[in-house]
Amino acid sequence: MGTSNRLAGMEVPITGTDQLKWTQLSVLPSSSSSSSLAAAAAVAPPTKDSASCHIITGDDHPPTYLIWRIHESSPDTLEILELTASNQLPTVGLRLLFPHALSPFAFICQNQIPTTGATPYLLYSLSVSGVAYLFKLRHVSDYYTSYSIFPQNDFIHFDLNSLSPITSVAATMGCLVVGRHDGSVACFQLGLLHTSAQGFMHELRDVGIGRLWGLMARGRTVGTVQDLVISEVYGRKYLFVVHVDGCLRVWDLDTHARVLSHTISSEAPAGCKVSRLWVGDINQDSCLISLAILYTSMDLDMETIAIFSLRFNLGDRVILLPETMKNIHLMEGRFIDLIITSNKLWILKEDGLLFYNLFHDKLSVEEAHSYSLQEAFVADQLFQGSEHSLVEMSWTSLLLSPVKDQFVPFVSSIFLRRLLHPGIYQNAALRATALDYNKHWTDSEFQSLTIDGLKKEIFSLIEGEVNAPISVIYCWKNLCTRYFHYWCKNNAPYGLLVDASTGAVGLIRRNTVSLFRCLEDIELLIYGSVDEFGDFVNSGLDLPDDNLDREILFEVLRCISSISQQLGKAAGAILYESLVSDQIISSEELIPGFLKVLEVGYSSLVGKLHVSQIGADTAWKKELEDHRCQRKFSIDMLLSLHALLGKAASWSRVLNVIENYLKFLVPPKSIQRLDSEAVFSINSSVMILSSSQVARVMFESAFDIILLLGYLVNVRGQVHMMHDDISKIQLELIPMIQEFLREWLILHFLGTTPSESLALEDFSARLSSLHIDSSTIGRSWNEKLGTCDFTLACLLFLSSETSSEDPAYFSSIYFPSPNDILRSAQNHASWIIWGGTNKSSAFFNHTIELILILLRHGQYEAVEILLGVSDAHSRKEKTSQSVQDSNGEWCIQLHLLGFCLLARAQRESQRFLREKKVREAVRCFFRASSGCGASQALQSLSFQGLPHPGYSSCGSDASWKLHYYQWAMQIFEQYNLSEGACQFALAALEQVDEIPGSKDEEVGGDPLNEPATTVRGRLWANVFKFTLDLNYYYDAYCAIISNPDEESKYLCLRRFIIVLCERGAYKNLCDGQLPFVGLMEKMEQELTWKAERSDIAARPNPYKLLYAFEMHRHNWRRAASYMYRYSSRLRSEVALKEHQQCSMALQERLNGLSATINALNLVHPTHAWIDPQLDGYSSLGELYPNKKARKVVEESSLSRSGVQCWRLQYCIDIEKLEKEYVLTLAEYFLSLENIKLKLIGNQTDPLDLVDLLVQANLYDMAFTLVLKFWKGSGLKRELERVFVAVALKCSPSRVGVSFIRNDIRTHDLLLTSSEEESSIHRAVDTSALVHQSKGNSQWETLELYLEKYKKLHPRLPVIVAETLLQADPQIELPLWLVHLFKGGRKATSWGMTGLEADPASLFRLYVDYGRFTEATNLLLEYLESFASLRPADIINRKKMSAIWFPYSTIERLWYQLEEMGSSGHMIDQCDKLKKILRGALLSHLNQVKVDSQDAVSSAASQIQ
Question: Domain ranges in the chain?
Answer without folding.
Answer: 1-178, 390-493+530-664, 1066-1236, 1385-1501
